[in-house]
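Deliverable D2.4 — example input (structure tokens):
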């Protein structure tokens, strides 16, 4: 990964927007383009965590409404990113095929640093990648993105409650989720989702306690937030 440049995205017109603008130009109507696809506003060069969080919330709202802006996906933008990258958020999410962060938050190339594995386990590789994002790339926001009906969470619960060891490296995932299974014991409601919530909260706490990230969090340079994605609605709810 290359070092970021001072340049941020100069524009965030998606492919659909560009096409709409071209059609509108032919038709002599700028209003038509505006109505066709939302233009995603550009973030400042060095966004705060709050600005980054709002960009994710806005993007998810577009996704939920099925009106994505498809920002930063043009050939021109893609080529410009060979000079460097300056993503505005790190997302640590589940490997689940139904929860791709770039789609869920309606973002494009160069926007998000993404770490994914089953049930968003922060192992050494994920922690190192996240620290790299915060320190070398200056990313102000870290999002831990859980989701309901997580198969990895369900499998871990089954392995622990039936005392059945998971095969090979899968057991490392089970062991990482085990504290959340214990933390969610006795809570009312859906067992799977309770464990998922606990796992997300514990993951946030783990990141905040990291010796490199903790001073950045204390200084307000970096914010760590948990979030939950709902498979049916597409909505992301931020915790805390
Ligand atoms: Zn999952």
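Example output (designed residues):
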């Amino acid at each position: 990964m290359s070092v970021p440049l001072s340049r941020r995205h100069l524009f965030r017109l998606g492919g659909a927007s560009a096409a709409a603008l071209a059609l509108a130009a032919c038709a002599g109507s700028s209003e038509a383009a505006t109505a066709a696809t939302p233009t995603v506003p550009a973030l400042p060069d060095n966004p705060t965590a709050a600005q980054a969080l709002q960009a994710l919330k806005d993007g998810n709202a577009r996704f939920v409404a099925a009106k994505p802006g498809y920002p930063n996906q043009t050939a021109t933008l893609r080529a410009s990113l060979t000079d460097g990258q300056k993503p505005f958020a790190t997302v640590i999410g589940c490997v689940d095929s139904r929860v791709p962060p770039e789609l869920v938050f309606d973002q494009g190339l160069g926007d998000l640093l993404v770490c994914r594995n089953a049930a968003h386990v922060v192992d050494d590789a994920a922690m190192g990648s996240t620290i790299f994002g915060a320190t070398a790339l200056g990313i102000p926001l870290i999002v831990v993105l859980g989701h309901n009906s997580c198969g990895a969470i369900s499998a871990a619960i089954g392995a622990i409650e039936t005392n059945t060891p998971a095969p090979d490296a899968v057991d490392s995932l089970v062991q990482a989720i085990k504290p959340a299974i214990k933390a969610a014991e006795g809570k009312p409601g859906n067992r799977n989702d309770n464990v998922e919530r606990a796992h997300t909260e514990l993951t946030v706490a783990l990141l905040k306690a990291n010796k490199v990230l903790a001073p950045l969090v204390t200084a307000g340079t970096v914010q760590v937030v948990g979030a939950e994605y709902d498979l049916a609605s597409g909505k992301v709810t931020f915790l805390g």
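Residues 19 and 213 are 42 Å apart (CA to CA).
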